[in-house]
Specification:
The structure is a single chain. The protein contains five helices and 14 strands. The protein is an alpha+beta fold and 266 residues long. The chain has one domain: Lipoprotein localisation LolA/LolB/LppX (outer membrane lipoprotein receptor (LolB), chain A). The longest helix has 16 residues. The termini are far apart.
Length: 266
């Protein structure tokens, strides 16, 4: 008689996964709360190291035509620092956006002056703001919205032609210095990756619709390399943010200082 063949660990793992899939519809996995999704959202987007990347903003306006802005982005999450240096067009080259701690500045090369700005400052006239690229924790900015019964607003849906399973959730601002006071977000059910966002004014008017695609896993985090911002007020106006050349090498401390931006003007 042949000895019994013990299944491999891989086979056992596959069997367990299959069982979990079969049982999933029976409620083995509980639907997360909105707060749990927000907490995971922060964990995913927080970097363990410094980051440098190239960012291209392409803004299309029905009246002003197409404008392309190239920039270099530096981020250091451990002390909430980031720097954006504009490289083109020539009229914007050398301008920059610097944040250190709770302070954010706009630097203009032509006048060599710094202006204290808010998170809603638009970069080079695009639909993308400085706040879109900074690293302030989402849970510090927004809290779950509640319905008339005091319950979080969360539902299961599918999105796109591929019918991707997502959670639809609503959040409300809990600080004043945010771009929009109310957001509706669609995140994937498996990794809580944001695919779509609708931004509303206090009166409930839809102001902007954003799409996040081409996610790439880097150092255990998922980064959307393509982000499209559609202005719902100025119809036909869109901004596409493309991120390339991501590096996690240490960024020199001097780059997160006003003097560095000033040195670029010399």
């Amino acid at each position: 008689m042949r000895p019994a063949v013990m299944p491999s660990r891989a086979a056992i793992a596959a069997a367990v996964c299959g069982l979990l899939i079969l049982l999933g519809g029976a409620g083995l996995w509980a639907t997360p709360s909105v707060q749990e999704i927000i907490d995971y959202y922060d964990t995913n987007y927080q970097l363990r190291s410094d980051m440098t990347a190239r960012a291209r903003l392409t803004t299309k306006d029905p009246e002003q035509g197409t404008k392309v802005i190239d920039s270099v982005l530096y981020r250091r999450d451990k002390d909430d620092a980031f720097l954006i240096v504009l490289a083109s067009p020539e009229t914007e080259r050398g301008n920059g956006y610097l944040r250190v701690g709770d302070n954010m500045w706009l630097y203009r090369r032509t006048t060599r002056t710094f202006t204290h700005i808010g998170r809603d400052e638009k970069i080079g006239g695009s639909n993308t703001t400085a706040g879109d690229l900074e690293t302030r924790k989402f849970k510090e900015l927004y809290k779950p919205s509640l319905d008339s019964n005091g319950k979080e607003i969360l539902s299961e849906e599918t999105i796109g032609a591929a019918k991707i399973p997502v959670y639809r959730l609503e959040v409300t601002a809990q600080v004043n210095d945010v771009k929009y006071p109310k957001l509706v977000m669609w995140v994937t059910r498996d990794k809580y990756l944001e695919l779509k966002r609708e931004s509303y004014s206090l009166s409930g008017t839809l102001m902007e619709t954003d799409l996040f695609t081409n996610y790439k896993e880097v150092e255990g985090r998922f980064v959307p390399l393509l982000q499209k911002y559609t202005d719902e007020v100025e119809k036909g106006r869109t901004t596409l943010l493309e991120i390339t050349g991501i590096s996690f090498a240490r960024v020199d401390d001097y780059k997160f200082d006003k003097s560095y931006l000033e040195s670029l003007s010399k």
